[in-house]
Amino acid sequence: MAYLVLDQLTKRFGNWTAVDNVSLTVEKGELISLLGPSGCGKTTTLQMIAGFLDADGGRVMLDGQDLLAKKPNERGLGIVFQSYALFPHMTAAENVAFGLEMRRIARADRDRMVADALKLVGLEQYGDRHPRRMSGGQQQRVALARALVIKPSLLLLDEPLSNLDAKMREEMQIELRRIQRTVGTTMILVTHDQSEAMALSDRVVVMNKGRIQQVATPQEAYDHPANAFVANFLGRTNLLPGMVGGGAGGTVITVADSVWPVAQPMAAGPGALAVRPEKIGFVDAGGLSGTVLARVFQGTQWLFEIETAAGRLMVIRQHDGSPLPAERERVMVGWRTDDMAVMPADREAA
Amino acid sequence: MSMAASTDSQVQATAANPSTHAPPPRRPRRWPWTPYLLSAPGLALFAVLLLVPLVMTFLLSLNSFSFYGGIENVWQIGNYADIIADSYFHEVFLRTFRIAAVVTLLCALFGAPEAYILRRMKSPWRGLCLLIVLGPLLISVVSRTLGWALLFGSTGLVNQGLMAMGLIATPIEFMYTETGVIIALTHVLVPFMVLSVWASLQRLDPQVENAALSLGAGPLTVMRRVVLPQIVPGILSGSIIVFALAASAFATPAIIGGRRLKVAATLAYDEFLNTLNWPLGATVAVLLLIANVVIIVGCNRLVERRYKQVFE
Ligand SMILES: Nc1ncnc2c1ncn2[C@@H]1O[C@H](COP(=O)(O)OP(=O)(O)OP(=O)(O)O)[C@@H](O)[C@H]1O
Ligand SMILES: [Mg+2]
After folding, report:
1. CATH code where residue B236 lies
2. Is residue B259 helix, strand or coil?
3. ipTM score of the complex?
4. Helices B141-152 and B178-202, packing angle to 10 deg
5. Same-domain pairing of A58 and A108
6. What's the structural domain count of chain A?
7. Which of B200, B210, B215 should be substituted to probe chain A, the one whose Cβ sees the most A Cβ atoms within 10 Å?
8. Any idea where the ABC transmembrane type-1 domain is (chain B) (predicted)?
9. Closest CA to A32 of A227, A223, A185
10. pTM for the model
């Protein structure tokens, strides 16, 4: 039985559907990231799990219990808010202590736990400062400490590291990962930072316009995007229009003058082929032909822009001394069929 | 004016460019009187309409008055000595500030929750209820107070209703009593408290309440530990406004309190228009002003010191 289950969760604001039939299961101790463009419903989803917004449909089960039936203050979740939501009239230490006070933890234990939590986020010097007198990053770390100190079994993190500098962010990422590993806290992390999601998560959930596009491990989502949106959203990709059809040896997709075998069963019709720039190489035969429009030296690698009958392609080659085509040269490009993803043509590809 | 200044310095900079040994750019010349000139109309209005009458009232309070001789243009502080010595005036001033204090307390007790509930309401109802709350401000003070008098008279709706329900045997006296004045003043002044608390609620991040909930606080605890401390400055500044207006209110105590239950404002009025003892009326007015300023400035200092840390 999964630890957290979102079942067809839906939220509408007027006639705008902010979260549309979101279903997701999260195992205990898993760290899962919600990724997606601004306004795709990530915060709204978290707010429904937390109970600050009433769902218009669907269920949320936590550890076998119906979460939506519980009041927000009885859910016992740890939450880091996108806007921090610190108590402005309390000092940093008082902010962190609040949840412990509500749990009636004895004064001495409380003080020690607050000090530990502040130390964890590197703010041991700032305990008696008010939020208005702290920088954005410091406030964010207080918010993180406040959520961590109550040792919740489920932690909802709405862009908890967005305002930290690179070094501090890395430290906090390691800290989150450590807590998740050692304490076994289940975490749902909303982030704009793809590399953060890739580095931290057991699985990523890519959302767009309130709908889940793909749930997969970071590597799987990167290598085998479920659709054009995911392919475009996660890293740079080349998306080539083609025609899916049945060939002699099974299903194939035809892209301009090249033909590629399709592994999964697919209906015939218009489709798209996604392949990452770094997975494309120059071949002698059996590939897609084109002309080099431009090549740019980037230190460790070369960036090529190639004009083909199926559109422009981005190609990245390592700068390892092997001979590379010049500008305006006729070339043929190809890739391993394992490195490409084929998907139905998607009008919503953004 | 800052625009003019920056254009000036640009002109200088381009002029200085061709020369190789350009002198360090001179600070653009500023005419130091501009701010005063700009605020002159406001200051003039302030001086003519407020300062001059105030000074004249003060000077008047130093004159003396005799029943036969009228106002005599002498400078003395006999009026102040009279008031300070006379227990009748003590009673009036004490009553004035007692009424003001109770009204302030009631306004805070009703106004702050009212503002909070209003903010929680959904769109169409919120506007409607806000209008109802602010309603008293839209009606002339005289007709509103007369309404109260009708409602509270011994044959008024309230007393008739209470007697019909058998709750009281004889009518409760509202007219010419402190209770009546306090109720009416609270009704008139509560909008100021609502507006003031409303303004401080506006700065409240609703997610902060959610944060407290998520940490396990019940709704009452959220109220006491999170919402209330944040709107205290609003309640206190509202209290200052309400106190000042209640202590110097005239129309409401005049109609409900009548001649029998005098407060400082009605006392001054009577001295001016009935006894014709203008100097004594002026003295009452000056003392009321001084007491008001002292109390309000004192409270304000207290508030500022207490909340400087949190809100700046
Ligand atoms: N209270 C509200 N009333 C109306 N629409 C809302 C409300 N809250 C959110 N929305 C809409 O719902 C959609 C999803 O909002 P949400 O805050 O969940 O986005 P998000 O994915 O968290 O974006 P971001 O990455 O910018 O934080 C947005 O289009 C937003 O305009
Ligand atoms: Mg958000």
Report:
1. 1.10.3720.10
2. coil
3. 0.82
4. 130
5. yes
6. 2
7. B215
8. 93-299
9. A185
10. 0.78
